[in-house]
Specification:
By secondary structure, the chain is mostly beta strands. The chain has 2 domains: 1-84 and 178-210, no CATH class; 85-177, no CATH class. Helices cover 10% and strands 36% of the residues. It has helices spanning 10-13, 56-68, 192-196; strands at residues 3-7, 17-21, 25-28, 34-37, 44-48, 75-78, 98-102, 109-111, 113-118, 121-126, 136-139, 142-144, 150-153, 158-161, 170-174, 179-183, 204-207. The strands form 5 sheets. It has a 6-stranded mixed β-sheet with strand order 1-6-16-17-5-2, with no helix packed on it. A 4-stranded antiparallel β-sheet has the order 7-15-11-12, with no helix packed on it. Strand 13 and strand 14 (158-161) form a beta hairpin. Keywords: Hydrolase. Residues 4-209 form the DUF2460 domain. InterPro entries: DUF2460. This is Glycoside hydrolase family 24.
């Protein structure tokens, strides 16, 4: 997939609207009961990048970024200001935040995930675009050092430990992450006069699978 490892300007994404979307197929039976199923294992997020624009300079920066990505052709990183940490937004990431695997004595590779839990149910979200230098890892409560105890592929979110954890040992991680997205349009229409009058262009952005 064509993807540029560059982040959309965070000063422009701040103030944007968006969030996760699910797809559910619902069939109503003759009895009145429903059967519900989903073709999606994971939610898909979408945003409106136009809402973060505050000046004509912002608009020019957006157009430059759009042109460099050639519209929908190349994906890029997006900071979701409401959900970009392995912990609560008000806290700082710690190595104990997320369980990413259990040691079996052989496996050294573990993919970053974030768990969303409520009422006994949970969802594991793959984290494929961690921010470089933000990831902390611990094995069985012992914090490791990046480059000496583990390495991280920031393009895939896979942690590679220098040695395999023992059987039953927990592998945990804390991190800051981006969402892989692309523009959901090949055209941006705007008028400088309308923009100065408060009319903001619609610039849809949608999550992509990587």
């Amino acid at each position: 997939m064509s993807f540029h490892e560059v982040r959309f300007p965070t000063d422009l994404s701040f103030g944007s609207a968006g969030g996760p979307e699910r797809r559910t197929d619902i069939v109503t039976l003759t009895s009145g009961y429903e059967e519900r199923n989903t073709p999606w294992a994971h939610s898909r997020r979408s945003y409106d990048a136009g809402l973060g624009l505050r000046s004509l300079d912002d608009l020019a920066e957006l157009v430059a970024f759009f042109e460099a990505r050639q519209g929908q052709l190349y994906g890029f990183r997006w900071k979701d200001w409401a959900d970009f940490k392995s912990c609560a937004p008000s806290k700082e990431p710690a190595s104990s935040d997320q369980l990413i695997g259990i040691g079996d004595g052989a496996n050294q590779s573990f993919a970053l995930v974030k768990t969303y839990a409520s009422g006994g149910a949970s969802y594991l979200r793959p984290v494929t675009k961690p921010v470089d230098g933000s990831t902390q890892v611990e094995v069985d409560g012992v914090v490791l050092t990046e480059g000496a105890g583990f390495n991280l592929d920031t393009g895939t979110g896979v942690v590679i430990l220098d040695s395999a954890p023992g059987v039953g040992q927990e592998v945990r991680a804390g991190f800051v992450f981006d969402v892989p997205v692309r523009f959901d349009t090949d055209r941006i229409r705007f008028s400088a006069g309308a923009f100065n009058a408060g009319q903001i262009p619609d610039v849809p952005v949608v999550e992509v699978r990587v």
